[in-house]
Write a structure and sequence with these properties.
The complex is a heterodimer of chains A (349) and B (168).
Chain A (H helix, E strand, L loop, with lengths): L1 H4 L14 H13 L3 H8 L8 H33 L5 E3 L1 H5 L13 E5 L4 H8 L6 E5 L9 H7 L1 E5 L2 E5 L2 H14 L5 H13 L6 H4 L4 H18 L8 H4 L5 H12 L22 H7 L4 H7 L10 H26 L1 H8 L1
Parallel strand pairs in A: 2-3
Antiparallel strand pairs in A: 1-2, 4-5
Chain B lengths: L3 E2 L4 E6 L2 E6 L4 E5 L1 H9 L6 H12 L5 H13 L3 E3 L10 H9 L6 E4 L13 H5 L21 E3 L8 E3 L2
Antiparallel strand pairs in B: 1-5, 2-3, 3-4, 4-6, 7-8
Classes of the chains: A mainly alpha (349), B alpha+beta (168).
Chain lengths: 349, 168
């Protein structure tokens, strides 16, 4: 996977010439993770491009290009509606990162991540009620809550979109957001590492490393590791980055954790899994479901705010499991209390 | 009747020498080879098939006879990319001969673009499976019927927490 996607975001990516068996093996992983279009761009001159697996990557390339067109129309409409209601949202991830790629559709996305400050949340939700487009509405920005919203807003940029404007995070804030988001989800998606490469390499000489590295220092160390990972796995260019980034040595487990995750054809991301609470009524498969939820080393470390050092990861994974179980139990108790007939009766009286 | 390209309800995107068309009414996408795309563009309702063929030849350098044009127009019509259906030429010596002649003209391909096989665990998603998915992971696959309304896809609407089967 890493070989297939190395430097794939560049205007002229290096050619990729896998054998047919190699392509056959990596093809499902590329398609599942949304990296088919990127891989096709590198593959198209190779002999294997004319294989059935090559055709599937080409179809992904075509499909994502069309989807990009559709999504832009939708996004422009959503933003216009929000602006009409006086809501000024910041757009992150999705379109905001796809624009760093040389062609529309190379970086597919399924929804729009819109960030609003808490005072505008209800107004935004009212506008989005019944909206056709898929919007992920965030109140504030959890990954960047180590800096005030006013600063994020001040550093945001306006870009043209569909006859209107879209506001996106400043380059430094966006890169930090992307890196932290990737780590929080265990870096399961190779595309996220490509994003770091694409954003870094198109940000230009004016990139404010001081601001990028500011804020919570544990998170700063995490994002440094993310950038070095992008260099070491997919060839991102860290030219111009300070030594705090370029000299950060990665612990041995980090590469292994990422590559093992990418190679796992059976992996299902959080959100694709059947909710645990549904196993209460139909317990068949609950052990497999629990196994699927075992946190990988990266998400466990980030989940418990641990350091990316050489210590074994099992204690972090166990701690993260305990923490998740506690959150799940608490959430379940609250939900049951809300649904309880006794509670409803007591309220009615 | 001269052929006329449909424009309404279509999104057009040029990508790497191919013309991608998305039909907003039928929610399907097509990829036209370069010569077929030129035929489609020149169908303005005023040009005769012969004029279209000559214009495409000038533009692409590919010889285009009446048989190749007939195949091209038939493909466009089947994909609902023409508003005015032309009077199609009868094959001189059967359909196979017609297609053989057309195959000599490169770039007359029309490929329907759909989600690649490996990106779908199944050909459709049941309503229950769709509604169990968190909003960031809606598959956009067609929903299986019966169970979900026909023509719906597993997607997320607005700020809903979970996916649902709804029109695309």
């Amino acid at each position: 996977m890493a070989a297939a996607l190395a430097a794939s975001w560049r205007v002229t990516p290096p050619a990729w010439e896998p054998s047919r068996p190699e392509l056959g093996a990596v093809n499902p992983l590329l398609l599942r993770s949304g990296a088919g279009a990127l891989a096709w761009r590198r593959l198209r001159a190779a002999a294997a491009a004319r294989s059935p697996a090559g055709f599937e990557l080409q179809q992904a390339y075509r499909l994502h290009a069309i989807q990009a067109l559709l999504h832009e129309r939708q996004l422009a409409r959503v933003l216009k509606r929000l602006r009409g209601a006086g809501v000024e949202a910041l757009l992150g991830k999705g379109w905001a990162v796809a624009r760093h790629y040389p062609e529309a559709g190379l970086r597919p996305y399924g929804d729009f991540d819109l960030y609003v400050e808490s005072a505008q949340r209800e107004a935004a939700r009212a506008v989005l009620e019944g909206e056709d487009a898929s919007v992920d509405l965030h109140t504030g920005c959890a990954e960047l809550n180590d800096r005030p919203w006013s600063l994020l807003n001040e550093r945001a940029r306006s870009l043209p979109l569909g006859g209107g404007q879209v506001r996106v995070f400043g380059a430094e804030d966006h890169l930090r957001l992307l890196a932290l988001h990737m780590l929080r989800h265990g870096a399961w998606r190779p595309l996220w590492l490509c994003d770091l490469g694409a954003v870094l390499e198109t940000s230009g000489r004016g990139f404010d490393w001081g601001h990028f590295l500011s804020g919570d220092q544990r998170r700063t160390d995490w994002v440094c590791c993310a950038l070095v990972l992008a260099r070491e796995l997919v060839g991102a260019d860290l030219d111009g980055a300070p030594e705090q980034v370029t000299r950060r040595a990665l612990p041995a487990w980090l590469h292994r954790a990422v590559l093992r995750q990418w190679a796992d054809a059976g992996f299902e991301a959080q959100g694709r899994r059947r909710p645990m609470v549904s196993y209460a009524q139909r317990p068949a498969g609950v052990l497999r479901a629990l196994r699927a939820r075992w946190p990988n080393a990266i998400e466990a470390t980030v989940g418990v705010r641990g350091p990316f050092n050489g210590l074994p990861r099992l204690p972090f994974q166990l701690a993260e499991c305990v923490s998740r179980t506690a959150r799940f139990t608490l959430g379940l108790r609250r939900a049951l209390a809300r649904a309880s007939p006794l509670t409803a009766f007591a309220r009615a009286r | 009747m001269n052929p006329r390209a449909r424009r309404k309800g279509l999104l057009v995107q040029e990508v790497a020498g191919e013309t991608l068309l998305y039909d907003l009414d039928r929610h399907c996408a097509h990829c036209l080879g370069p010569v077929l795309a030129e035929v489609w563009r020149r169908c303005n309702g005023r040009r005769s098939p012969g004029q279209i063929a000559r214009a495409v030849e000038r533009r692409t350098g590919q010889p285009m006879d009446e048989h190749a044009l007939a195949v091209a127009l038939r493909r466009l019509a089947r994909a609902r990319l023409l508003e005015a259906a032309p009077v199609l030429l009868e094959p001189a010596r059967g359909r196979r001969e017609l297609l053989k002649k057309a195959a000599a003209v490169a770039g007359l391909t029309l490929v329907s673009v759909s989600a690649p096989r490996a990106s779908a665990a199944a050909s459709c998603t049941t309503l229950a499976a769709c509604q169990a998915l968190g909003n960031k992971f809606c598959t956009n696959q067609p929903c299986c019927t019966p169970g979900a309304p026909a023509g719906t896809f597993c997607n997320k609407k607005g700020s809903a927490t979970f996916c649902n089967c709804s029109p695309p």
